[in-house]
Amino acid sequence: PIPVQAAADDFLRCMSASVPGNLLFPRSSPSFASVLASSVRNPRFLGPAVVRPLCIVTATNASHVQAAVVCGRRHGVRLRVRSGGHDYEGLSFRSARPEEFAVVDLAALRSVRVTVREPAEAWVESGATLGELYHAIGKATNLHAFPGGLCPTVGVGGHLSGGGFGMLLRKYGLASDHVINAVMVDAEGRLLDKQAMGRDVFWAIRGGGGGSFGIVLSWKVRLVAVPPRVTVFTVVKSAQQGAADVLAKWQEVAPALPDDLLVRVVVQGDKARFQALYLGTRDALLPVMGSRFPELGVNPAHCKEMSWIQSVPYIYIGDTATVDDILNRTVPRDSAANKATSDYVRRPISRDVWARIFSDWLARPDAGLMILDPYGGSIARVPDHVTPFSHRAGVLYNVQYMNFWGGGGDGAAQTRWVRDMYAFMEPHVSNNPREAYINYRDLDIGQNVVGAGGVTSFEAGRVWGEKYYSKANFRRLAMAKAKIDPRDYFRSEQSIPPLVLVG
Length: 503
Ligand code: FDA
Prior knowledge:
Helices cover 31% and strands 20% of the residues. The chain is α+β, with helices and mostly antiparallel strands.
């Protein structure tokens, strides 16, 4: 092994020879802390005990990314790649274990090129945010959209790597289901498109999670059709108003509604907040809600018609937000620290259990919240082997548990709430394996073990990998990893281990 300091110095010298000095931020740079914090959404990963990179490279060109890989390989320094910095465990810019690594930050590689003549498509660079992608589409057309997540500051690079779902998931499935080409720098520093990376690797990068196969610089995506007017509504039910009964009914109704309609729920305190997007007019929506889900009591006053692009800020930021607000990349200064994890539900949870969730869990002083996203529709019609994402047919909904703390607290009580809630839910959610969503990454469900040969163990990785991807898909991901990065250069606490079949 090379002495750590010498490797770091050699890496920095190598980088200085190929990348302009103003794009390199070693720890000694006065701007290091602010560049590191620039896209960090969870201040839990900015504390003094966090393992930070030895340097950040703010690439503005593919050649800078290639140089980082070449220098990193040559001098034994690993890279982590950051697009939007929203990773729930901060793995794009910190290590959970002591390690010397550098960060390649793609925030400046963020162009979006939309073509609206059929077939409507876009090339989007990884450093763009979802807000920038949606905004560019909205500027070009009111008849197309992209089916990704709700939060406009999420980065395209991490989001598409891990799947990505939002209000259009029942109509159009995952964001990654719409990727038709990509350009990636591999562990040899080569620039590869879909054809050059080959079928297995192109399969793997569309949902197999970021940070395992290479650094994806840009993605070609298919846009989807939306009507010029869509309808949104929000209805809140408190526990006293029968939220447990309405939730029990929602579980059966929401995954079976027409594909044009998605009703998600945020459950917090004593309230369930039902938020919907319908691809059509209010007049068409009301009879559907009246016949399929009368318990929710949706009336014309709850509903608002707007364009799809207007629905993006309306749903995520609030009713006074404008379309331009989704271009704001600045992380709010008062962002709360948080801890989250996820589950999938395949059998409805009983009304009594919902009542206990309200009384025993959400009423606690340090309680967090639950977000329920219904599946069914398009996401369920794609067979599990078609992409790495395996939570499709038979899934009723995804659950996200999240808890927040601020003011410099250590988050111990809030983190304990998430872990205890997760333990309580075990009999009520998917099992064998208990499924989880990679883009809601949680290191508590398992972490890699590096084996004797300096390569991540496939067997140990199965603990977390089969939860995110299923047994068969995790194995196939590991075989794709062995093809593109057999020496395991792109590695983290939850990267795909290479599986080399002998004989
Ligand atoms: P970040 O840059 O932190 O990267 C995430 C992972 O991907 C890391 O392992 C990183 O190394 C790797 N990576 C990043 N760029 C890469 C690249 N170019 N090539 C290869 N690997 C790369 N999800 C969802 O499906 N629907 C939703 O509505 C939301 N909403 C949401 C809100 C908020 C506030 C947060 C914090 C997160 C979400 N998410 C979400 C989850 C989100 O999809 C997930 O965290 C993404 O991985 C974030 O992508 P970033 O590029 O921002 O993360």
